[in-house]
Every structure is written in structure tokens, then in C-alpha cells.
């Protein structure tokens, strides 16, 4: 597992949407993580669902051609009370997956709860809490924070996948990386890089509560 995390990766994170699609690209080498680009792709002005999906498909293909990601991480298992909303989101998921498949990019799926647990330690965190945690441990300036939470959701998805490369939350039955760290006896002294930043950010949040 350590060999995986030491390797160079370019991770494309996608938060599927039919009006705004969140996307984020992370370049990682070992424990060094760099944000290449992230944002929310706006297709809401286009008329009709299918033209929007087509636009998203071509946009993702262009991103893949530009950055050559080694993996696509995508949010899945979306549930909504409105069946029509669910269907539209599933279509958007399918478009992102198809774009990756067309370019032979490996695909990894994560549930919303797993993503939130990986970033904040709480599977029921709000989108704002996830965005705030990402800003803290990735040192994103206020002026660089996007207005659309779709963008930070995509960044969370990409970072969640990065964490899985070095410390999978499924190992040993742990529900999130903080539980895993406790079981392994890891502390802030035993962690380095992004995992140390996560632990420090979580500690700060706990002190404020």
C-alpha cells in the first residue's frame, strides 16, 4: 500500500450535476499534494438535459486530454426523495464514467457518506463543513475558494481517493481514516503530510465546539 501512495498520481474528482458539475484535479507525489485545477462547470444556460450532458461529456474529455489523470474518483449512490432528480443525477454520473472509459481512465466510486467521513470524520457533515475543512488543511486562500460548493465537493472526492491510496478506510473495519489511525496507534507525531494536516484540522474543530 505504501508503494501506491509514493507513486505519482493525477486524480480527477467529479461531483455529478445536471446544472453545475464539480470537478477537481490533484497532482500527488508521495505525501505532496497540489491542486491543479478545480471549479464548477456551468451548463445551466443550455436548453434541455441532453445538450447539457453532451457539454459535460466533452468538457471532461478535454480535461482528461489536458491533464492525463491516472484515475477518476466520482460520487455515487446518490439518493433523493424526488425520483426525477435521482434519474438526472444518475445520467450525469453515467456521462462522467463514459468520458473516463472513452480515455481508458480507471474509475473509483465513493458514497457521499464515505467522502464526508474521510474529510471530516463525520459522515453527516454539511457541504459547508467539508469545504471549510478542505480550506484549512490544504491552505486555500479565501479569495481562491469557489462560490459553488460543487467545486469543493469534487475536491473532497479527489482527496478522499488520495487518502485511500495510503490509508484505506475499509481496512480493519474502520469507518473513517481517523478511526483507522487510532486503531494503529497513530498520533500527530506519527503522521506526516496530508494525514497530519487532517488530524490537526480535526483537533482544531473539536476545540472550538
Helix content: 40-55%
How many strands appear in the DSSP assignment? 5
How many distinct helices? 8
Unreliable residue runs: 168-177, 184-192, 204-209
Major sheet details: 5 strands, mixed
Strand order in the sheet with the most strands: 3-2-1-4-5
Explain the overall architecture:
Helix 2 runs parallel beside helix 3, helix 5 packs across helix 6 (149-166) and helix 5 crosses helix 8. 51% of the residues lie in helices and 18% in strands. The chain has one domain (2-168): Nucleotidyltransferase, domain 5. It has helices at residues 2-6, 49-67, 83-102, 112-120, 127-138, 149-166, 177-183, 193-208, and strands at residues 8-15, 20-29, 32-42, 71-75, 107-110. The longest helix is centred in the middle third of the chain and has 20 residues, at 83-102. Residues 168-177, 184-192 and 204-209 have low confidence and may be disordered.
Layout: helices, strands, pairs:
Layout: H1 2-6, E1 8-15, E2 20-29, E3 32-42, H2 49-67, E4 71-75, H3 83-102, E5 107-110, H4 112-120, H5 127-138, H6 149-166, H7 177-183, H8 193-208
Parallel strand pairs: 1-4, 4-5
Antiparallel strand pairs: 1-2, 2-3
Helix pairs in contact: 2-3, 4-6, 5-6, 5-8
Which key terms come to mind for this protein?
alpha/beta; disordered C terminus; Nucleotidyltransferase, domain 5; 209 residues
Describe what is shown at a glance:
With 209 residues, the protein is of the alpha/beta class. Helices cover 51% and strands 18% of the residues.
